Amino acid sequence: MTLDRFDQLALSVAMRDNLASLGYTTPTPVQSAALPPLLEGFDLIVQAQTGGGKTAAFGIGLLERLNPTLADTQSLVLCPTRELAEQVASALRRIARAIPNVKILALCGGVPVGPQIGSLEYGAQIVVGTPGRIDDLLRKGALKLDRLRALVLDEADRMLEMGFREQLSRVIAATPEHRQTLLFSATFPEQIEALSADIQREPRRITIAPEQRLETITQYKFEVDDKPSAVAALLHHYLYRDDPANAASTIVFCNTKRDCDELEQRLRSAGFSAASLHGDLDQRNRDQVLARFSNRSVLILIATDVASRGLDIKDLDAVINVDPALDPDIHLHRIGRTGRAGASGLALSLYTAREARRIEAIEARHGEIDRGPGEALRAEGRPAYAPMVTLDIDGGRKHKLRPGDIVGALTRDGALDQAQIGKIAVGEFASYVAVESKMAKRALVQIQEGRIKGRRFRARLLY
């Protein structure tokens, strides 16, 4: 069945109306291919890149097959990172607006387990979480999956790469044998094939070709000896040469945590606005780095593949591969973060003479990459400074804070104009607010010496 419109499916009227209100009119390729067999109850093994609409694909299916009159957990979605789990839960809540009395919980590590146990006492039809925390809640007896009807493994390859195989096995063992199992993965190494064979029953296989995005991405390769110097030169040549005030947001990929930290030090010492993201960061520091990059108080994010998976980063101008990806499909996943939604993107890949074979493997799989101009590696200039600074407030949703409350506190008595306030992210226990760099200290005083909803909150500036 070729699905051109959502109304071709036997969806409830409420679901169709809600999808229309959300702007879901024409299904994406993964939605068109996956929804019909999913709604029929088949197991699926789906290969699709991030950003193709797969959350809505399985979300619509889970919600249409849900019984909202039962408080039991009927669907479980497992994700490799807290960030992806929270994004999935948020997307499912938007899709579920058409269905009354549906409770969706995000259960992840990095936060206290007590409140999560309390939330589970009231029931949740859909649970979204990370394998470690779900395993922990099962062992404590706080979560029961004996009535589960559907299991989703989202970004399954990354969960295996991050060492979650043992936790996955225990979680899956706690689910009924007769369930629908949906496995989504950007790549299909042998581990994924083996996992599918162990947990699925005659799955329908769906592969969404990722090459459709490459036409919007300009790619160059550069053979170099000194990679940190080359990264700085490429930033000057391609991203900062015209107007540093409008500098681009860039993700730089390294293969190891150590390389991320060393490159961050080199770039920061040269005056660049950069921060690294990898598995050694605790959750609070990880949240801070992501908030700063998202709100443009950091312009360069240096990350490993595992740490960067599942990030919801929009309007990314460029990707720089400091190290060639170890798997050609990972290369495609990296560069596919730019050039989205019809916008143009830039992908620059560095390699040494010893790494030439990795580049050759990528080209054999995805096509030849043009060699970049030599002058790009000799570029010099003035680094771009971030236009914003992030204000970290020790208060979040658990304190009943909303973005409007924070805006009101910052603009009280004319301290700041609303135009000087950027993106606001309110988390469970902390909030991150972007303010113009020149107004950062005034914003800090405004929060520290003022009150929000009648109480004081501690705050600090993140540099």
From TrEMBL:
<feature type="domain" description="Helicase C-terminal">
    <location>
        <begin position="216"/>
        <end position="385"/>
    </location>
</feature>
<dbReference type="Pfam" id="PF00271">
    <property type="entry name" value="Helicase_C"/>
</dbReference>
<dbReference type="GO" id="GO:0003724">
    <property type="term" value="F:RNA helicase activity"/>
</dbReference>
<dbReference type="InterPro" id="IPR012677">
    <property type="entry name" value="Nucleotide-bd_a/b_plait_sf"/>
</dbReference>
<keyword id="KW-0378">Hydrolase</keyword>
<dbReference type="Pfam" id="PF03880">
    <property type="entry name" value="DbpA"/>
</dbReference>
<dbReference type="InterPro" id="IPR000629">
    <property type="entry name" value="RNA-helicase_DEAD-box_CS"/>
</dbReference>
<dbReference type="InterPro" id="IPR011545">
    <property type="entry name" value="DEAD/DEAH_box_helicase_dom"/>
</dbReference>
<feature type="domain" description="DEAD-box RNA helicase Q">
    <location>
        <begin position="4"/>
        <end position="32"/>
    </location>
</feature>
<comment type="similarity">
    <text>Belongs to the DEAD box helicase family.</text>
</comment>
<dbReference type="InterPro" id="IPR014001">
    <property type="entry name" value="Helicase_ATP-bd"/>
</dbReference>
<dbReference type="InterPro" id="IPR044742">
    <property type="entry name" value="DEAD/DEAH_RhlB"/>
</dbReference>
<dbReference type="InterPro" id="IPR001650">
    <property type="entry name" value="Helicase_C-like"/>
</dbReference>
<protein>
    <submittedName>
        <fullName>ATP-dependent RNA helicase DbpA</fullName>
    </submittedName>
</protein>
<keyword id="KW-0347">Helicase</keyword>
<dbReference type="GO" id="GO:0005829">
    <property type="term" value="C:cytosol"/>
</dbReference>
<dbReference type="GO" id="GO:0005524">
    <property type="term" value="F:ATP binding"/>
</dbReference>
<dbReference type="GO" id="GO:0003676">
    <property type="term" value="F:nucleic acid binding"/>
</dbReference>
<keyword id="KW-0067">ATP-binding</keyword>
<dbReference type="InterPro" id="IPR014014">
    <property type="entry name" value="RNA_helicase_DEAD_Q_motif"/>
</dbReference>
<dbReference type="InterPro" id="IPR027417">
    <property type="entry name" value="P-loop_NTPase"/>
</dbReference>
<keyword id="KW-0547">Nucleotide-binding</keyword>
<dbReference type="InterPro" id="IPR050079">
    <property type="entry name" value="DEAD_box_RNA_helicase"/>
</dbReference>
<dbReference type="Pfam" id="PF00270">
    <property type="entry name" value="DEAD"/>
</dbReference>
<dbReference type="GO" id="GO:0016787">
    <property type="term" value="F:hydrolase activity"/>
</dbReference>
<dbReference type="InterPro" id="IPR005580">
    <property type="entry name" value="DbpA/CsdA_RNA-bd_dom"/>
</dbReference>
<feature type="domain" description="Helicase ATP-binding">
    <location>
        <begin position="35"/>
        <end position="206"/>
    </location>
</feature>
<feature type="short sequence motif" description="Q motif">
    <location>
        <begin position="4"/>
        <end position="32"/>
    </location>
</feature>
